[in-house]
């Protein structure tokens, strides 16, 4: 199962490099995040890292999507035949060269056999104050950014108000 997600990740990386439209880039980045999170959840015994990755990336992708749609005009996405063929051939090339090698097999086996204890280090009793300070810092930064952004002068397109 990890091999499938690794091939999907390589294919999505190739698509991301060849794309030039903001909408296609955001869709590819969303699928890349989901495939990376699924691969992380299969490799680790806990799902916390993948949950955090999905929450952070999806929140930022929503903000970037709103920002980009307010700035760009209605561009059409162009997909040529060579681009589509490269999407389908990349996982096959990856399968032949990398997945069957001995190093990748050993990496998958050792990552599946590791005992995950790093996530518990954050929540140890002597580390609670650091965690609370980090959360308060993130909250304060969010509040400052909210106060700094002027909605009338911001980057998001204004709605035509009739006076």
Q: Over all CA atoms, what is the radius of gyration?
A: 21 Å
How confident overall, as mean pLDDT? 71
Q: List SSEs in N-to-C order.
A: HHHHHHH
Overall outline: flat
Low-confidence stretches: none
Taking the sheet with the most strands, its summary is: none
Q: What's the assembly state of these chains? A: single chain
Helical run tally: 7
Strand content: under 5%
Structural class: mainly alpha
Count of beta strands: 0
Summarize the amount of helix as a percent range: over 70%
Quote the distance from N terminus to C terminus: 59 Å
Protein name: NADH dehydrogenase subunit 6
Keywords: Membrane, Mitochondrion, Transmembrane, Transmembrane helix
Primary descriptors:
NADH dehydrogenase subunit 6; transmembrane helix; mainly alpha; 74% helix; mitochondrion; 163 residues; membrane; transmembrane
Describe this structure in words.
This is NADH dehydrogenase subunit 6. Helices cover 74% and strands 0% of the residues. The chain has 7 helices and no strands. The protein has helices at residues 2-18, 22-43, 48-71, 81-99, 102-113, 118-122, 128-148. The chain is flat, with a radius of gyration of 21 Å.
Structure at a glance:
The protein has 163 residues and is mostly helical. Helices cover 74% and strands 0% of the residues.
């Amino acid at each position: 199962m990890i091999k499938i997600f690794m091939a999907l990740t390589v294919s999505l990386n190739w698509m991301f490099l060849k794309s030039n439209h903001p909408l296609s880039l955001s869709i590819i980045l969303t699928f890349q995040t989901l495939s990376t999170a699924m691969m992380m959840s299969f490799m680790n015994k806990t799902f916390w890292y993948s949950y955090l990755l999905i929450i952070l990336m999806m929140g930022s992708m929503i903000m970037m999507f709103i920002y980009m749609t307010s700035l760009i005009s209605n561009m059409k996405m162009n997909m040529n035949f060579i681009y589509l063929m490269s999407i389908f051939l990349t996982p096959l090339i990856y399968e032949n060269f990398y997945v069957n090698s001995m190093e990748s097999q050993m990496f998958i086996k050792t990552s599946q056999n590791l005992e995950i204890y790093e996530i518990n280090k954050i929540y140890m009793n002597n580390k609670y104050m650091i965690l609370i300070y980090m959360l308060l810092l993130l909250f304060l930064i969010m509040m400052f950014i909210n106060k700094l952004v002027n909605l009338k002068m911001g980057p998001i397109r204004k709605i035509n108000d009739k006076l």
